[in-house]
Amino acid sequence: MSKDPLQRYAESLQRTIEHNFNYLKEAVENFKGLCQIVTPEKRVPQDVIIDIRELYKEIRDRLTEIKAIQQVLQGKYRQYYRRDSIRDKSILEFGFLVKNLYSKVEYTLLQKQAIAHPQQSHSPKQEKRSFPSQWFHSKEHQVTLMRNLRILHELDYELPKSSETSEKREVLQGQKRHLTLFCLKGEPGVVETIHARLRLREHDLLERYSQDELHGLLTHLREVDPEEVERIFQRLIQHEEFSELRCLLMFVNNPALLESQLMERIRETLQGMEKGEVKTLKI
After folding, report:
1. Which of 170, 196, 173, 185 lies closest to 247 in space, CA to CA?
2. In whole angstroms, what is the distance from residue 179 CA to residue 151 CA?
3. What are the pLDDT digits (tens) for 214-226?
């Protein structure tokens, strides 16, 4: 007997929390070791500083993802959510520890820099919003985008047994999977119509991002030719009622490619597109 789809999704979110928690246990210990190298007395290799900053960002991303997933589970999926108070306490402690260690490292580096270059002033950089929080407004959609990209190789579709109408989607081991992000932009009335008609699959998402814009996510569980996806959207907007829409596609299989400045490129590209055009933005 197949499980309720909501229960299946809640369980997969909880597995993601556990996966991230196991990663953090090792990553935080490595981070502590790196931070201990940074002292006022010693010359710190640049490679160590880079490693500290990159690992700090990765740890913070994982902590942010866990927090976002917990918020989603405590809402719509509360009845399926099994809290682990010991694990939750450890996650909070990881956050405090890493933040304090990183602050000490940056303070030490600023001191050393002030001694070496007394005339230079430095102001802390502002943290940029992560791409998932820019691409989707919905917290649940943000979580799904982060999670699907991170565990793409673990996802699968649950298809009804003896189904004749459902497309069979076979997950082939060793093949390169990816996500497609897509944007449909046009007059509000047209956007509303296509929003109501589009039907997506289990791991796909669609959001009315603004009055004149839809943002979506397609999760491909087999190797897909980007040109094939382009042709699908081209056929979609060939319909007379959708012919003035602009469609922008992005294919991605690496979270590192989803940097915050990507939204600026997306906006610039959309502004330069013609009505009825389908375009792929290389990232």
Report:
1. 185
2. 11
3. 999 998 877 788 8
pLDDT at res. 163 = 43
Q: Is 273 exposed, middle or buried (0-12, 13-18, 19+ CB in 10 A)?
A: middle
Helix axes 5-35, 85-116, angle to 10 degrees: 40
- Rounded distance, CA 268 to CA 265, Å? 5
pLDDT for res 2: 65
In contact, 187 and 151? CB cutoff 8 Å:
no
The β-bridge relationship of strands 213-220 and 205-210 is: antiparallel
User: Can you state the angle between helices 85-116 and 46-75, rounded to 10 degrees?
Assistant: 150
Q: Identify the pLDDT of residue 176.
A: 61
pTM: 0.61
pLDDT the model gives residue 143:
84
CB atoms within 10 A of CB 1: 2
CA distance 51 to 46: 9
3-state secondary structure of 192: helix
CA distance 112 to 125: 18
First to last CA, the chain: 42
Residue 169 in contact with residue 157, Cβ under 8 Å?
Answer: yes
Give the chain's residues under pLDDT 50.
121-124, 126, 159-174
Query: Which residues make Cβ contacts (< 8 Å) with residue 263, sequence separation at least 6?
Result: 131, 134, 135
